Amino acid sequence: MLELLNEHACFGGVQRFYRHASSAIGLPMRFSVYLPPGAGERPLPVLFYLAGLTCTEETFMTKAGAQRVAAREGLILVAPDTSPRGAGVAGETDSWDFGVGAGFYVDATQEPWSAHYRMYSYILELRELVLSSLPADPERVGIFGHSMGGHGALVMALRNPSLFRSVSAFAPIAAPSRCPWGRKAFGGYLGADASHWRDYDASLLMAGMREAPFPGGILIDQGLADKFLAEQLYPEAFEQACAQAGQHLMLRRHEGYDHGYYFISTFVEEHLRFHRGQLG
């Protein structure tokens, strides 16, 4: 059951913030939804956005400037939180890149994280909740995200191409098994055996594909002034994996752009239009 926390008129539609009891997480979770004008008159395509480290369900909706485009394109936007809140796990607030605000969209297998840190299953749960509670078309669902959320979006789409028909990302952590952020998160949530990390590494998943899962292409934007590019993101690994699998990838590199929401807000319109074209 959804609890409406607040709502705001926005570009002829409505911006809402919800809370609900999550069976996947075992705790209340929050998410945000933008409903464009005309929502409810007919089922509309829906686009899930997964945010990055330290972000919440509010970050994208307040910083990206996406509602104006979604209103014009007739897209429902959904943004979940980035981790459980209030799990009470010892050490969950000690680091900005692990624990609260840093669920990494995996299902933890290691104690004490495995009880509540199940963000992979939560995104699938939220997808079903949105489709059953809001005027969203189940045949037209896409996903995108930024940084940690870009990693999450790629993994969710690659593992569930029948559930997500389109995928894109801003500066994703494209090969988390190789980078400090990913190794810290995977080691903590999934254990020291790196063979258990493969299912959450987009570059490794793509390299194992026998055919292209997204014939309409995958879109990634990456700023070349991003201070995390060399050490944390590895877009070239995903690019190589796509070439190996025959997957069309539009990896656009942009001089002067960094890792933040000035970058995202610059290109968010093109991402929404990309998804609208894929979803119909």
General description of the model:
Helix content is 32%, strand content 23%. A hairpin with a 6-residue loop joins strand 2 and strand 3 (28-35). A 9-stranded mixed sheet has the order 1-2-3-5-4-6-7-8-9, with helices on both faces. The protein has helices at 59-63, 67-73, 119-133, 148-159, 180-190, 202-207, 229-233, 235-245, 261-279; strands at 3-10, 13-21, 28-35, 44-50, 76-80, 136-146, 166-170, 218-223, 249-254. It has 9 helices and 9 strands.
Outline the secondary-structure elements.
Blueprint: E1 3-10, E2 13-21, E3 28-35, E4 44-50, H1 59-63, H2 67-73, E5 76-80, H3 119-133, E6 136-146, H4 148-159, E7 166-170, H5 180-190, H6 202-207, E8 218-223, H7 229-233, H8 235-245, E9 249-254, H9 261-279
Parallel strand pairs: 4-5, 4-6, 6-7, 7-8, 8-9
Antiparallel strand pairs: 1-2, 2-3, 3-5
* Portion in beta strands: 15-25%
Record field, number of beta strands: 9
**Unreliable parts:** none
What's the helix count?
9
Structural category: alpha/beta
Taking the sheet with the most strands, its summary is: 9 strands, mixed
- Arithmetic mean pLDDT: 98
Q: What is the general shape?
A: globular
Radius of gyration: 17 Å
Order of helices and strands: EEEEHHEHEHEHHEHHEH
Instruction: For the largest sheet, list the strands in their spatial order.
Output: 1-2-3-5-4-6-7-8-9
Helicity, in percent? 25-40%
Distance between the termini: 29 Å
